[in-house]
Design goal:
This protein is about 0% helix and about 45% strand. About 45% of the residues are buried.
Length: about 270
């Protein structure tokens, strides 16, 4: 969520692709099943609030929303689902409100399978994401300590899901980002499972158990592989921005929501 991709490789798969079965056994170590109502569980989730200033105004992407904290309109659990909802409303000097939930210092992992079952918003200007950032910036600020984007989606490309990683050597600012996409025509109308399996030397990306992208440690050091530290999870819905707003924002579609059925984290053995 700290970039717009200047180019992307699109890998198209049939929805009847054979199911992937991991060769690794897995054990559940952290989860939120959203089997309650009200605000998100404060023992598992915190909020990024505002617009990122003074560090990175508009979260570094010229986004149009203001992220709120503990506001049911923007982040709530109801009917067994987490709802992250963006509204068109005036808040401070922004015209949209939304929420960005983070598991930092409440759910932090080094390696494992991270999976999120979600249904995505629709419409031009939406930019939902399920992604991970380092809990401690051991190698320096972005992109040096890494970023893992489990799922990104933009409303002007409604049938494509993207997965990517960012490191000092591989990121969009210098045209070297490592990323791929998968064709998913009903991402906005049905729930799908977005996941990674992250080991000491590889991160593999899945949609509904279909592997579509992998990134492997080249053995050349942290500039290419900073993924040997703990990362935490981020769930958010941005409005507009350098990528989400690339073709403008439809002001008639709001509110829009990302619905999350569950978040599950497994150790891999």
């Amino acid at each position: 969520m700290l970039r717009k991709f200047p180019y992307l490789i699109i890998l198209c798969f049939s929805l009847c692709h054979p199911t992937h079965i991991s060769s690794q056994q897995k054990q559940l170590i952290w989860a939120d099943e959203f089997d309650y109502s009200g605000l998100p569980d404060s023992t598992k989730w915190s909020y990024d609030v505002g617009d990122g200033c003074p560090a990175v105004c508009n979260w570094g992407n010229q986004e149009l929303q203001y992220y709120t904290k503990s506001t049911l309109k923007n982040a709530r659990v109801e009917h067994g689902k987490l709802i992250i909802e963006a509204h068109r409303e005036k808040i401070k000097h922004y015209n949209y409100s939304s929420a960005r939930l983070v598991s930092k210092n409440k759910g932090d992992w080094q390696y494992g399978r991270i999976e999120v079952k979600a249904k995505l918003p629709s419409g031009r200007g939406t930019w939902p994401a399920i992604w991970m950032m380092p809990t401690e910036a051991a190698y320096g600020g972005w992109p040096q300590s890494g970023e893992i984007d489990i799922m990104e989606h933009v409303g002007h490309e409604p049938q494509i899901i993207y997965g990517s990683v960012h490191t000092k050597s591989y990121h969009h600012s210098i045209g070297t980002q490592k990323t791929a996409g998968i064709y998913l025509p009903d991402a906005e109308s049905n729930f799908h499972i977005f996941a990674i399996e992250w080991s000491e030397d590889k991160i593999e990306f899945f949609v509904d158990e279909i592997p579509y992208f992998s990134f492997t440690d080249e053995g050349t050091g942290w500039k290419e592989w900073p993924f040997d530290r703990k990362f935490h999870l981020i769930l958010n819905l941005a409005v507009g921005g350098t990528w989400g707003g690339e073709q403008g924002v439809d002001d008639t579609i709001w509110p829009q929501r990302m619905e999350v059925d569950y978040v599950r984290v497994y150790s891999l053995k």
